[in-house]
Amino acid sequence: MNVRLSRLSPAILVVALAGATLFLIPAPGARDRLRAAEPVDQPAAAPPATPAPTTAPAPPASAAITPPPAPATTVTPGGAAIPSPAAVGPAPARAAISPPPEPSAPQRRATAPLDWPANYEKILDSLVGQAVRDESTVDDRRQLDDYVQRLVAEVLEEEGGGKIPGAEEIRRILKSHRRFAYFTDERREELTLDAAFSQAIQNNVNLKLSANSAAKSPYDVMAADSAFEPSLATGVTGTFSESETTSSLAGANVVKQRGVQSSTTVSKFWGLGTVTALNYAVNRQSSNSRFATLNPSYTQSLTFSLTQPLLRSFGPAANEASYRQAVNAQKLLGLSLRQAKINTLFQVEQAYWNLALAYDDLLVTLVSFLQSQDLVRINAAKFKEGLVALLDLTSAEKQRMDAMELVIVSEAALTKAQDALGQLIAPSENPADWKRRFIPITRPQAMTEAAHLDPVKEIETAFGNRPDLAQAALDLDNKDIALAAARSRWWPQLDFDGNFGYQGVDRNYPQSAYEVRNRDQFRYSLGVNLTVPLGTKAGRAGLEKAEIDKRSSVESLRGARSGAIQEVRAAFLDLQSAVTRMEVTRAGQILAREQYLGEQRKLKEGMSTTFQVTEFVKQRLAASRANLKAITDAQIARSSLERAKGTLRQDLLGE
After folding, report:
1. Beta carbons of 113 and 102 less than 8 angstroms apart
2. Which helix (H) or strand (E) holds 218?
3. pLDDT at 54 exceeding the cut of 80
4. Pairing assessment for the beta strands 437-440 and 493-506 based on DSSP bridges
5. More confident residue, 464 or 35
6. Widest distance between CA atoms in the chain
7. Given a cut of 50, is residue 58 above it in pLDDT?
């Protein structure tokens, strides 16, 4: 018994599938009558056909399944017949769609003509999607336009006919179909590539962090330069002493002395290691000794002093090292900001073209789904009349399911592409902001110059513009500065000290100051001080480490230049490959379309099967998607080459 049931299971499955299919076929009626139809996609150069006269009787049921020689109508997804695109003549790539001719009486319940707005294509542009990016999507866009016309006509027929009031009515009809959600969203914002760049410069989080780091660097330079600013030091000291004496010459048994000393010094450190100072001091002394001739006494002095290292810490290499390294650090942060801008702009452009690709991919997959849906309905009608086998119907249904899966995947990819671009140009903590819909309207740039690029010249350009190479050169300069300072610290300390000045002494303050002004008492001193460390380990260790650091920086610079060459060459080869792929996939797309149309004609003449047509539908869809991917890859490859050279949008990078 089990064996018998297993043998009958395929037959049961076929019968169940046939029953389910017949259940899904609309019942006969004014709106759902099945008429003669062909797949949506018609050759662009199909000769026009004269529509049926309005007084012609309705065709019999058998005529509804026999393809006419030059059909003037096609079947909508709901079953309503409206004029075919071939009936109104060949449609140009982006020309305005002509109003369909008045259908025959049996085809519509309403007697009022279908009045399409004069700006129909502009309305459709604002509703259905972006401007066509390339000729590769023109045909698919035309097919979608045709489907929208048929869909709107079907709904209006069901509602009783009448004229199309305009964009809002079309929007209402399209909103009722889930598959047009991405094309009818009212939160859509047209976005050019330049506008995306500008928003990223203003809003990108990583750029703001890099800009904040770079903004702190001038203060580090200011702090390092403060060592060379003059300083002022002043102070007042009071003293008192009391001592017993053993000699009458002291002038008192207990000598008591009181004093007040004040001093003001202005000093400055110079780049050669020189320290200069100007000191003005006042000293007041009083005593109880009877032998003190000036009591109280005022001593004032003006002294200029100079200290100059002659070996260790001599010269700018040792004394300006911190300042020069701070200046280089400021330049390094500026270059880091420039590199961050280049990387961010590249990410924005990459996300922009990926979003454009996602829109176009959804367009072609949606058109493929609509075509497969029409093919299912046509085969269902023929199967109901017994003109095709169940295999043809199941083949068409399988193709429709596959196309539906691709539409769902494309919708998810489009949402992710929207989020990726939004995170780069308009990050937000508000969940409602993530529902924005950016519509990329910038067309791809021509690639004519790609064939004339010279990789050697591109590498030379990279050597002069890449921020990472400039950073490596600055790092090497910092190591040179540190090495020079380490060599200076290797020497013993030998300093020259000198000072000269004037002094005045009197029992009253004004008189002592007058003597200083008159330079009555001159004094000076000169000397040399030598300090030799008994151990040299610290100096030797510092010098060896500095030399190793310099060698490492030299190798880092060489590695950076070698890496730049490899990156430029790789980007150059990617661009050449992408341009070639774009040309090849474009030719493949044209050939796949011609094969598909040829197989359609063979199916019409009974020389092909639905299964073969669905295979060519898949091939055409794959060829269209491959061409769109090649176009996107070519744009990204061009941007990648500009990033590798360090010349990506230099007008936005700043100084």
Report:
1. yes
2. helix 205-225
3. no
4. unpaired
5. 464
6. 155
7. no
User: What integer pLDDT is reported at residue 124 of this predicted model?
Assistant: 58
* CA separation for the pair 135, 583 (Å, rounded): 12
Please give the Cα distance from 595 to 43 (Å, whole number): 11
Cα(586)–Cα(12) distance, integer angstroms: 45
- pLDDT confidence of 136, banded at 50, 70, 90? low
For residue 391, which phi and psi values (nearest 5 degrees)?
Answer: -60, -35
Which pLDDT does position 257 carry in this prediction? 86
More confident residue, 59 or 525: 525
- Rounded Cα gap, residues 275 and 252, in angstroms: 45
Tokens of 143: 């097919």
Q: What does the alpha-carbon distance between residue 263 and residue 491 come to, in Å, rounded to a whole number? A: 35
CA separation for the pair 282, 261 (Å, rounded):
6
The residue among 305, 304, 300, 303 whose CA lies nearest residue 516 is 300
Give the span between the Cα atoms of 420 and 119, in whole angstroms.
Answer: 34
Please name which of 140, 98, 153 lies closest in space to residue 120, comparing C-alpha atoms.
98
CA distance 330 to 174: 57
* Strands (DSSP E) found in 379-534: 437-440, 493-506, 521-531
Pairing relation of β-strands 297-309 and 493-506? antiparallel
Closest to 344 in 3D by CA, of 639, 574, 655: 639
Residue 284 parent element (H or E):
strand 275-287
* Amino acid in position 523: R
- Distance (Å, whole) CA 262 – CA 277: 16
Q: Which of 77-86, 206-215, 411-420, 513-522 has the lowest mean pLDDT?
A: 77-86
Other C-beta atoms lying within 10 Å of the C-beta of residue 167: 16
The mean pLDDT of 187-206, rounded to a whole number, is 89
What tokens appear for 326 in the block? 């701070």
Q: Is the pLDDT of residue 334 over 90?
A: yes
pLDDT of residue 463: 95
The pLDDT value given to residue 87: 34
C-alpha–C-alpha distance, residues 650 and 30, integer Å: 64
Q: Which of 348, 353, 342 lies closest to 578 in space, CA to CA?
A: 353
Strand partners, 307: 275, 497
H or E segment at 299? Answer: strand 297-309
More confident position, 243 or 122: 243
CA distance 57 to 463: 79
- Per DSSP, 191 falls in state E
The full length of the chain comes to 655
Distance in angstroms (rounded) separating the CA atoms of residues 458 and 569: 9
DSSP per residue, 253-278: SEEEEEEEEEEEEEEEE-TTS-EEEE
Distance CA 211, CA 208 (A): 5
pLDDT digits (tens, 9 = 90+) for 477-492: 999 999 999 988 888 8
